[in-house]
Amino acid sequence: MVATARALQVGERSYPVVLPSIRDPRLHLASVIIAIHVLGQLGLGFNVSIPQILSAIFTAAILEVILTFALVGALMWPASAMLTGSGVALILRDVGTVHGEYWSWRNWQTFALVAAFSVLTKYVFKFRGTHIFNPSNVGLVVAFLLLGSERVEPLDFWWSPLNGWMILAYAIILTGGILITSRLNLLSMGVAFWATLTAAVGVLAASGHCFVARWSFAPVCGSSFWWVIITSPEVLIFLFFMITDPKTTPRGNVARVAFGVAVAILATLLMAPQTTEFGAKVGLLAALVVVCAVRWLFDRLPAAGSEGDRIGAVAARFARTDGVTGGVTGLAGRIVITLGGVVVLAAAIVVAGIPARGTAEVPPDVLAEAGVVVDPAVVPEVTIDPEVARFSPDLATADGASALGLTLVENLEVESVALLESDPALLTGVDHGDRLVEMQNRLNDGISRGVLTVDRYSFDSMHLVVLQPFGMQSGLSAGIEGTGTVEHVTYDADGRATDSVTEPFTETFALRQVTGERWLLVSVAATSSQP
């Protein structure tokens, strides 16, 4: 076999060889995505391994080479497929893979299968000679819907505090995105998408929308939700490198702007009812799948290159008057109809967001109701894991950590009072999730049996860590790894102490700002090792 720059000779047969070109915008796009992968491994804490990334890229590339050779009899550099595989690996996360496991092969086959399916969609779902869906986009949506949040997760909306790594990531995404989309005449579509999403999500945020995210101790609500979405580097990647796929977007400038607006509106409507970041992210990605499926509707707009295929021409037609009276009336009518449509759309967004509307506030006087007063001196010095500062600079201070330690002691004291006074309402003021269920069961069991056990904790040490959930989408928790002694006091039906056992403990207490400012105890588990 003799390979040349143009053909591969095998016996008497010659097979064309298509090599990459330095001018190919797909290579420029790939360089941006690869740069983000590198930053993710070095400084942004991406929970994905190098074998997982390479599994997606190589699977997509090999499959594309085989398919193109079988279909056209040529060996083609799989630039598009490698971009698809890289995009899949950038957004897809395997639940349980953590940053730092650089060479882990954990569930690499999931990345390979999603990448393979993504490439195959180009050959299966076609219309007028070209594929309908952005391959990585539709592959990811199908994977998230079929596998669910217990097995896979999307890349977070929020990556890291604004440090040097994030500034560099923003610079690479914005510079590369603007240059590539400008060259392909797709920048106007990206701008239309982002501007519309900013306004639509603003309406959703103003209505009190909230979701929980594994990088936030409290629900992300209102203005914080709006800011996270519109400044999200993941949204920017979606904007510059997924929506703006020349093969799956309309050709005309007006149609492309309308396409971007439609994706933003549908994305907001799909995100509105979601109470988790997983749901919101899948809603964002799914919007592009749906709009791509009806791309033919946008082809009915002015044809590419025609006189009417300019935003200025559309604006002129909208404002055109055909006479003093009739024209003014016509223009006024168009304005009224447009404003009416905007109002209806805003109302639809608000209604769609009802399931994710706000959260109930914890009663601020729960300590007073329980009659609990704790001397801060009983709280030992709280040591702090360096990872805490990545998610909460305030909590990573000595004062912030000590305040959290005091809150833990207060919550445990309120639990004791709630059990002794048979007051389940007090439990909802300090507990949530598994811990609330556990304490409610203990209270109900004590009432039915007439025998109740109350735990009195005394701490010798506290170490503050971050507890990141994987797959459960229940929000970030602060963990206090505590040691000391716990006294188990047994009371009879008359409230008299009948027995007492004291033993050492080494446990992790998970706390979250589930419903308001107060940190609630969500779980308690034995710590496997000393801090």
Write up this protein.
- By secondary structure, this protein is α+β, with helices and mostly antiparallel strands.
- The chain contains 19 helices and 15 strands.
- It has helices at residues 25-42, 50-72, 79-91, 108-124, 135-147, 164-183, 187-206, 222-230, 233-243, 253-271, 277-293, 295-298, 311-319, 324-352, 366-370, 388-391, 398-420, 424-430, 433-449, and strands at residues 2-3, 7-10, 13-18, 75-76, 92-94, 126-127, 130-131, 152-154, 210-211, 220-221, 382-384, 452-467, 477-491, 497-512, 520-526.
- The strands form five sheets. A five-stranded mixed β-sheet has the order 11-12-13-14-15. Strands 1-2-3-4 form a four-stranded mixed β-sheet. It has a two-stranded antiparallel sheet with strand order 5-8.
- β14 and β15 (520-526) form a beta hairpin.
- The longest helix is centred in the middle third of the chain and has 29 residues, at 324-352.
- It is elongated.
- The N and C termini lie far apart (62 Å).
- The model is unreliable at 323-328 (pLDDT under 50).
- Please tell me how large the radius of gyration is: 29 Å
Q: Strand order of the main beta sheet, please?
A: 11-12-13-14-15
The number of strands is 15
Main sheet attributes: strand count, strand direction, barrel closure: 5 strands, mixed
Mean pLDDT equals 87
What is the strand content?
A: 15-25%
Distance between the termini: 62 Å
Structural class: alpha+beta
Low-confidence spans: 323-328
| Percent helix range | 40-55%
Number of helices: 19
Q: What is the overall silhouette? A: elongated
